[in-house]
Amino acid sequence: MKAVSEIPQLSIKELLSVEDFFQDYVKSGVWKIGFYDDEDSTLEYAGDAVVARLTRFLPSFKKSTKVLCIGAQAYNLGLHLVETYECKVEVFCDEDDISEAAYKKLEAQPRPDKMNLNKGSIMATPYDWDTFDFVLSVESLAFHTQKDRVLREVSYLLKPSGRVLFTVLHQQPSESENLLPWAEAMHVISLSDYQRIGRSIDLEQVLERDMTEHLLTHYRKLSKLLEQEKTKAQKQMGKATAAKFHDWLQAGILGLDKGNLGWGIVQFQKRNV
Asked: Which of 51, 151, 166, 270 could serve as 158's disulfide partner, Cβ 3.0–4.6 Å?
């Protein structure tokens, strides 16, 4: 196994070039995760399924419900919520996860009146405390170096008894040591660590759903597409970035397959204090 210092580390610029490549194959732009009915499901279908199904894990929505969406599918989730439930939605883009060009592209898209778009630091959002009934966070915590600060900000923003639902890649107890260096390098922690952080900031876990097989299938499909379109990937990302992302995917696949890594949905509820 490679040393921690040798694990492929992709910069924001490199990750954005990876995103540009995959968005050519997934029209909705939802490619980072997917829910699969079976292994024949397409990347496009699996990405759309994330948007359609995540909200089912939360209590009922009303027109007066206020929701904050952050992370990989934030914009698509926001549109789905407004169109389906007619609730009020804020979409927040972390400035460390989106380029100026990508954000301007989102700004230029038509939006429903009940949906607003903002950008800034996820650890210092522009919203008032006790504002939101729900916060939906898709793939925005797993690799963040300051998870406690992000969750603390979320706790401040939630109303009493409000809920945060997030997808997360995590370490899980295993006899295998296969991917501990990879997990350490990518700042991946365990579910018990998330629970510990939650308890310290008045967030209690109310749901945990293991979805590891979905992410394993997803990473394998991304890897297969990368191999099939190797020439285009190298041209669009650059050879070095394409190789680093390939190694990154293979490390993730190994960790998920061997049981050192898990992926799933977690929901916390803010204590009514």
From this structure: 270
The DSSP string of 28-74 is TS--S----SSTT--HHHHHHHHHHHHGGGS----TT-EEEEEETTH
- Whole-angstrom Cα distance, residue 133 to residue 115? 15
| CATH at 232 | 3.40.50.150
Range of the domain at 171: 4-269
Total domains in the fold of the chain: 1
What's the CA gap between 143 and 183, in Å, rounded? 9
177-231 residue pLDDT tens: 555 566 666 678 889 999 999 999 999 999 999 999 999 999 999 999 999 999 9
